[in-house]
Design a protein that fits this description.
A hairpin with a 2-residue loop joins β3 (54-59) and β4 (62-67). The longest helix is centred in the N-terminal third of the chain and has 16 residues, at 22-37. The chain has a four-stranded antiparallel sheet. A two-stranded antiparallel sheet has the order 3-4. It is an alpha+beta fold. It starts with a strand and ends with a strand. The protein has helices spanning 22-37, 88-100, and strands at 3-11, 41-46, 54-59, 62-67, 75-84, 108-114.
Length: 118
């Protein structure tokens, strides 16, 4: 079965103070448990803020290293989910369910992409 990476994009400047609510965490935990039992969820994690990240850039034969925060960045990858689904449509349906666990004041975008195998 194909594998898909759901990249969870957020605006770091617009996330609720204190992070996700306990209720959101509970809903996500239940969904992830269901996805794991269904054999769909292979791995998932949130990422630390960009202020704690480093970018390594290669251009014109030269490397540059820049420590965060990255002021020019608005939307960042805040986490990911690695899914194994029968097809793209199923991966998207699980991703929709994940997004619906969030309260209405969240703005979250997931980019679902199939992994190239082999």
């Amino acid at each position: 079965m194909p594998r898909y990476l759901s990249l969870i994009r957020i605006d770091e400047t617009d996330t609720p103070a204190g992070g996700p609510s306990p209720e959101l965490m509970e809903r996500m935990e239940k969904l992830m448990e269901e996805m794991t039992k269904a054999g769909v969820l292979l791995d998932t994690a949130g990422l630390t803020p960009t202020a704690q990240g480093t970018r390594v850039h290669y251009e014109g034969g030269r490397l540059s290293v820049t420590d965060g925060p990255f002021t020019e960045t608005k939307e960042v990858i805040g986490g990911y989910a690695l899914l194994q689904a029968k097809d793209r449509a199923e991966a998207i349906e699980w991703t929709k369910r994940f997004l619906k666990t969030h309260e209405e004041y969240w703005t979250v975008t997931c980019e679902v992409r199939q992994l190239m195998e082999g």
